[in-house]
Amino acid sequence: MELRKWRRREMVRIAWRDLAGWASLEETLADLTAFADAAICTACEFARRPLVARYGEPCSANPASGLIQPLVIVGMGKLGGGELNFSSDVDLVLLFPEHGETNGARPIANEEFFTRLGQGLVRMLETPTQDGFVLRVDMRLRPFGDSGPLVASFASFEDYLPRHGRDWERYAYVKARAVTAPDRYEEINASAVRPFVYRRYLDFGVFESLREMKALIAREVERRELADHVKLGPGGIREIEFIVQAFQLIRGGRDRRLQTTSLLRALATLGDTRLLPLNVVAELRDAYVYLRRLENRLQMLADAQVHRLPQDEVSRGRIAVAMGAPDWAALIKELDEHRGCVSRHFRFVVFGGNEADRGAVRIDLGRFWDSQAETAVLVESLSRAGFTQIHEASRLLLELRSSSLVRKLDEPGRKRLQNLLPALLADIAGSGAQLAVLRRVLRIIEAIGQRSAYFALLQESSVARARLVELCGHGDFLAQQIASYPLLLDELIDERLLSDLPDRAELARELAVHTQIAPDEPEHQVEALRHFQRAAIFRVGVADLTGRLPVMRVSDRLTDIAELIVERAMQLSWQQITAQFGVPMCDDGSGRRPVRIAAVGYGKLGGMELGYSSDLDLVFLHDSQGERQETEGARPGAHRAGTARPIDNQVFFVRLAQRIVHLLTMHSAAGRLYEVDVRLRPSGKGGMLVTSIRAFAEYQRKEAWTWEHQALLHARSVAGAPELRAEFEKIRLDVLSNHVRVDTLRTEVRTMRERMRKELSRAPEGQVDIKQDAGGVADIEFLAQYWALRWAKDYPPVVMFSDTIRQLESVASADLVPQVTVDLLIVAYQAYRARTHHLSLMNEAPRVAATEFVTERAGVTRIWNQAMADDPTV
Predict the structure, then answer these.
(1) Are strands 847-849 and 89-96 parallel, antiparallel or unpaired?
(2) Contact, 196 vs 162, CB < 8 A?
(3) Both ends of the chain: CA-CA distance in Å?
(4) CA 523 to the chain's CA centroid
C-alpha cells in the first residue's frame, strides 16, 4: 500500500514539474527511472525477507566462500536506458550468480529461492489494489521468453546468448543495466553481454536484421492501423532508436563511448565522431525530445500506456496546451515535420537513401553462380557494362567463383557476396584501369571472406564501394593495406577520408578513443595501438597518394603517429613495472623524489623523416642519482602498505626498457607496431638499455665518435617526462656546439661517407641507388651534418633543428653557405625523397634508371666535391 501511495505522490510531483516547464525532458525521464529503481529495490527487499526467514540466505555452492547470492535484476528498454515514461512497462531480466542452496533449517536450491523471489517481486509491483499498482512488469525479454524459466543462473545465461540469442536481443541488451547488485552484474556483462552485443569487428550485417525488424513493425502498424502511433508509426521514436542502436552495434565494439544505455549520449557521440553529420544529430535530438514529451503527455491523461493520438476534441485540446501549441492543427503540423525528418534520416541510414533503388544494379550476372553456366553469359554481361578486357576480367571472376573462399562461405555469406558483386563490378567498370582495379578488389574480397559482414558493409554503403574502387586505382599499397587488415574498410565510410587532412591533435584524439577499450589489459592495449596505427597510416597514405599531402608533411604525420605510440607504450610499461616493483626513487640532495624517464628518437624518427615502414631508433634516459637508488616497494621488515618488493633502479630501468621494446615489437592479432633499434645508445650493444642523463652527457662530451655526433644532430626527445626531455635538448645543443672535433671533422665525415657508398649501394648495371650512390640522399644529409657541426660553435642555431632541410636552411640563413647552393640541395633532396617514398609504397628498393635525376646528381656531386676537398670553397 505504501509503495502505491508513494508512486501517486511521485507521479504528481514529476508531472507538475514537467508541465510547468521546471524540468527538462532528461530530468523528467531520470526522475521516473529513479522512482522505478527505488520501487524495484524496495519491493525486492520486502519479498526477500519472508523467504530468508523460512529458508535462509542463498549461498554459493563453494563451501569455502559461502558467499550470499543476490538477485541481479537487469533493467531493459527505457528502464535500462534511464528513459522511463510516465506509464511505461518495466522490462526485467532476473539472474543469479551461482547454483547452490540456502543456509536455513529448511534449505532449498538457489534457483527455487530466486524463482519464488521473482514471483513475489512481480506480484508486489504490478498487482492492482484499491490504491492502484506500482509498476507494470514485462518479463518477456528473459531467455526463451515466456517459455523460459523466470530466473536464470549466470552460467545458463552465458550459454544462452551466443547459442540462442537473436538479432533483436542484441538491440535489447544495448540498454541492459543492473538495478540491483551492479558489481555482480558486471561479471556477466563483461563475459557474456558485452561480447554478444558489441562485436570487435565492424558488423554491418546489423542493417539486414534491422530492415527485417522494421518490416515486421511496418506490417504490424498497417494491420493495426497505427499510423498515428508516436512510438511505432512512421518517423516515430522507434526509428530514432533504430538509427542510434544500429551505429552502437556496428561500432560499439571498437569505440567504447558508444557502449552506453542512454540514447541521447550515444547520439551525441555519433556527432562527435562524425558518424552522423552534426545537423542530422541536432534534428534527431529535437525530434526525440518532442516525441518523448508528447508521449509523456499522452500517458499523463489517464495514467495509461498509450502512444496513439487522441480522437476526442477535449483530449486533443488538453494535449495541445500541454505541448505549448496554440491548437491541435499547429501540433499536428509540428509533429509531422519532426516525423518526416526522422523518416528521411532513417531511410538514408538504413536503406541508403531510397528503398526503391535497393538491389538495382547495372550488371546482370545472370547464372554466374551456377557452376554449369557458360562463360559467354558472363562475357556478355561485362561487355554491356563497359568492360574492355572482357575475357581476362571473366577469367578472374570465374577463378573467384571456383575459389576455396566461395566454397567455404556459409549461406548468409554467399548471399551477401552475390548481392555485392554486381554493384561492385558496376563501379569498377567506370574506373580508369579496370583490370588492375579488379585484381586488387578481388584480392581484398578473398582476404575479407572469412567475415562476410564486410561484404555487408560494402553492399550497404555505395560511398564505401566507390572509395574502395578509387583507392585501388592508386596502386597496390592501399589495396594491400586493406587486404591485410580489413578493418580499414571502416575508414572508407568516414567523410573525412578524402577531405580533411589528419593533424597531430586529431591523431591524439583517435588514439585516446582506441585505448579506452580494456585499459587494464596490456595485450588488448597493444592490439588497440595497432588498430590505431593501421587506420592512421592508411589515412595518411590516402592523403599522400591522392596528392593532398606533400612528402614532407607525410613524414611529419608518420612521425606524429610513432611518437604518440611510443608515449603510450612507455605509459603502459611504466604502469606494469611499477605495479610490480613500485616507483623508482632517488636522493638528489634535497630529499627523496621519483625518477624521471624519457625516450630520444634518432635517425628518421628524430629527423621527422619517417616512411611507411621505417624502424624506430630509440635511446632511453633517466635522471636517477644519489646513494640510495631503488624502487619504493615494501622493504624487508618494513611495516608499510603495499606488497611490491624494492629493486635497484638500474634493474628497474632494464626491465622497463625491455617491456617498452617488447610492446612496440611484439606480434599481436593485428600485427607488429614497429621494428626497434636501440644500438645507438652510448657504448652500443654493450651499453645499458637505459642510460643516466649525466652519463649520456659525459659520454657525448668526452668519448663519442664523430659519427655519433652526426647521429646526435638528428636526435630529438620524443616521449617521457617534460623536464628530462628539456634537459636532453640542452645537453644536445651544448655537445654539438662545444664538443665536436672540428679539426678532423671533414676527413672523418668524408671517410664515413665513402665507406657507406661501397658497402650499402646495391644498384645493378644501368641503375643508380638514389639514396646511397654519389649525388644522392646520403650525400645531401652528410653535407648538412658537416656544415652544421663545423659552424655550430660560432653559430649555435644551425644545430637547433634535427631535420635535414631546416639544417640546410639554417646554414644558408647564417650566410655560411650560398643560398643558391642550399636551394639546389633542397630541391634535389625533396625530389629524391618523393621518389624513394613512392617506390617504398610499391615495396621497391630506392633504385632508378641511370638516366633519371642526371642533373640533380651532377649538381649534388659537384657541391660534395667542393665541400669535401682539402681546400674547400664552401
Answers:
(1) unpaired
(2) yes
(3) 99
(4) 15
Phi (first) and psi of residue 628, to 5 degrees: -105, 105
The sign of the CA dihedral 833, 835, 839, 841 is positive
CA distances (Å), 59 to each of 179, 749, 792, in order? 21, 78, 77
Q: CA-CA distance, 136 to 78, in Å (whole number)?
A: 13
Place of cell 552506453: 260
- Torsions phi, psi of 848, nearest 5? -135, 170
The whole-number pLDDT of residue 723 equals 95
Q: What is the pLDDT of residue 358?
A: 43
Phi, psi (5° rounding) for residue 308? -100, 150
Q: What is the pLDDT of residue 621?
A: 95
Compute the 3-state secondary structure of the chain and give helix, strand, coil in percent, each to the nearest 5: 60, 10, 30
Confirm if 736 and 792 have CB atoms less than 8 A apart.
yes
- Are 193 and 252 a contacting pair, CB within 8 Å? no
Would you state the cell numbers that stand for residue 108, as one nine-digit string?
532449498
Provide the pLDDT confidence category of residue 359 given band limits of 50, 70 and 90. very low
* Integer Cα distance of 243 and 240 in angstroms: 5
Of 238, 265, 263, 493, nearest to 343 by C-alpha is 238
> How many of the other CB atoms lie within 10 Å of CB of 374?
11
pLDDT in tens, 248-259: 888 888 788 899
Would residue 733 be called left, alpha or beta, if left means φ above 0 and alpha means ψ between -120 and 50 degrees? alpha
User: Can you read off the three cell numbers belonging to residue 365?
Assistant: 550476372
Q: Write the CB contacts of 799 (distance below 8 Å, at least 6 apart in sequence).
A: 713, 732, 733, 736, 737, 788, 789, 792, 807
Q: Are 782 and 753 in contact (CB under 8 A)?
A: yes
Instruction: Tell me the three state secondary structure of residue 861.
Output: helix
Residues whose CB is less than 8 angstroms from the CB of residue 530 and which lie 6 or more positions away in sequence, other chains included: 668, 670, 671, 672, 673
Q: How far apart are CA 69 and CA 109, in angstroms?
A: 12
Mean pLDDT, the chain, whole residue set: 86
pLDDT digits (tens, 9 = 90+) for 527-547: 888 888 988 888 888 888 888
